[in-house]
Each structure stands twice: as C-alpha cells, then as structure tokens.
Amino acid sequence: MEKKMFRQYLLLVIPGLVIFTIGLIVPLFLSVRYSVTSWDGMSVEKPFIGLKNYIDLFHDKEFIDAWWFTIKFTIGNTIIQNVLALLFAVALDSGIRAQKIYRTALFVPCLVSALIVGFVWLKMFSNVLPAINDFLGTKFNFLLFGSSDTVLSGLLIANNWQWVGYWMLIYLAGLQSVPAELHEAARVDGANAVQRFFHVTIPMLAPAITICVVGITTGSLKVYDLLVSSTKGGPGRASTSVIYQTYTTAINGRQYGYGSAMTVTLVLALLLVAMLQVNTLRKKEVQM
Question: Model-level pTM?
Fold first, then answer.
C-alpha cells in the first residue's frame, strides 16, 4: 500500500518537477555556461573568455546605474508596501462595515497584469490627472513619468496600487489568527491600544512579516514588465532596472554572453538577500 501511494504521489509531482526543471533549472545552468563566453546569440561558436564578462560588469556604468535604481525602488517599495498593507489589514480587522467590499477593491488590482498596470498609470499621469488638474484650476505636477526626478515616485505609486491588496490579505490572515485572550489579558493589565499593537499584535505577526518582507523585496528586485509598458527605462535611463538592462544588452545589443553574466549576478544577489532576510527575521520570530 505504501509503495502504491508513493507511486501515486510521484506521478503527481513529476509533471511539476519537469516544468520546473525545463523552465528554471536548465536555463539557469545555460546562463552560467554562456556567461563565460562572448556568444552573440546567433553564431554556432561560443568563444570562451573566462571571467571577463564579470570583470567588465564592475566597470559598466550603465549596469551600476541600473543596480542603483533597482536598489532604490526595492527599498522604497518594501517599506511603503509593508506599512500600507499592515495599516489596511488593521483597518479591515477593526470591525468596520462593508469589509468584503473594501477587501475586494484592494485585492482586484493584483489580478491585473503588470503590463496593463503600466499602461493604466501612464494614461493616468499623462491624461486623466492633468485633465482633473485643469478642471479644478490646480497646478499639481502629475507628469511623474516625464522627469528623472519623479519617475521613481510614479513607479512606486503604480506598483503599490497593484500589490498592496495582496500583502494586506496575508497580514489580515495573521491578525485574525491572533488569540483574543492575549489582547484581553493586555487590556486587563492596563495596556492601551498602541501598546497592545506593538507588544501583542506585532510579535504575533512575525511569520507574516517575514513572508511579506522577503516576498516584496525579491519581487521588487525583479521589476521589469511594469517598466516595459510605462517608462521603457526612461526618461533617459532613469528607470532602467537590472532585468531591463539585461534584456536590452542581450536581445537588442546581441551580447548574450554579457547579458547572461548580468543574469547570474542578479540570481546570486536574490539568493543572498533572501537568505539574509529569512535568517534575520526568523531569529526575530524566535525572540518574540
């Protein structure tokens, strides 16, 4: 019976494992292989050049600038999205009316493709909001995608609009799993609402915080499709992320070997950041 169940489980796992291997593992190993060549993506020959591509990356100003934008976007996105998601979750957990309607309204944007979100906010910033500006006679600058000084703010608005509802649901599930007895005991001990939030709610939300922080950080480091439909890496190169730079280098620039080296560095950075965050936040969970 155990052998039969094992075979059944194996049959269920194999299709997903095959797709995972073909779609992720094989391309990753191929990227590592191509990253030590000067392959142009078309030629049969793939000249081996060792670590030259990786050495050149440290002197590539465009690649460094792409990393700098990606880091700024990731830091801003991680902070803003976690704070907003937690605040919305607390508000919806407070017993307000029409919770399901608010929950649905906040969650729906994450069901939309990031490409569509980029188009929507490009239209909002370039046409809809300026028209409202003219109607009201106000002079707010809504052309956020049109300036290198404001493009990051515009992208943060678009990305947070799309994903806050998703992470809010995770925080909301965590809040609803906090035993009411803990809040009642803290209230009996004289703790006010703020003290109960920081000394009871936040410690009990530690696992949810770990999931949200790691998920938002790694997702932000991989930002690409939002840029394709909204700023195309501009104005100039002000919103060029690492993945966008990798794409333009490998596809448009026909430097597949060099682009593969960029991909490998991004994967290593993702693994390092995720491991550091998980280890740090897990320790906090234990301490709490």
Answer: 0.91
